[in-house]
Amino acid sequence: MKALLVIDVQNGIVSCGDYKEELFLMEQVIKDFKESNCPVIFVQHVDDAEESPLKRGSIGSEIHSSLKDYSDFIIEKQTPSSFFQTELTQTLEKLGVDHLFIIGFETEFCCMFTAIAAYDRGYNVTFIKDATGTTNTAESYSMQGLDVKQFVGTVLRWSSVIEVVNYTEYTEKYK
């Protein structure tokens, strides 16, 4: 069975930029999974630090209103990996999931770490790179011309173990 992980689509992240295109693609993928009766699992990053935009219990930590009604499950995490010290593995086992599709925010951290951790746990993994977003830019990394999503997609594709597709490829293959 396949399942969709929607990672860190939270107010404190979405409010940092213009993510209309990414949110649109995320919603399209989510709708596909809902129509196929496949689980949609939201992963919510929460911090205990007072100054964090994702502070536990704050408006910033809440799932963004445009997508929150689609969730079948919400898993809380406190690290980039959605698997580390969370209930995700148990939830996936109960559901009989063997193929994870990954979309969401912080492409180069939470989405990539989760994709690698999922592969390490024996899941087939499909990473839909243009249905991810990040608050970081080339300037964040002092790397002129860096396209974070393209870079992460290339690195994961080079691994030859994680399938990386864009939305068009996803719809051609899985819809």
Automatic annotation (TrEMBL):
UniProt xrefs under InterPro entries: Isochorismatase-like_dom, Isochorismatase-like_hydrls, Isochorismatase-like_sf
Gene3D superfamilies: Isochorismatase-like (3.40.50.850)
Pfam family, one: Isochorismatase
SUPFAM superfamilies documented for this protein: Isochorismatase-like hydrolases
Isochorismatase-like domain location: 3-157
Sorted UniProt keywords: Hydrolase
Family: Belongs to the isochorismatase family.
Stated name of the protein: Isochorismatase
Organism field: Brevibacillus porteri
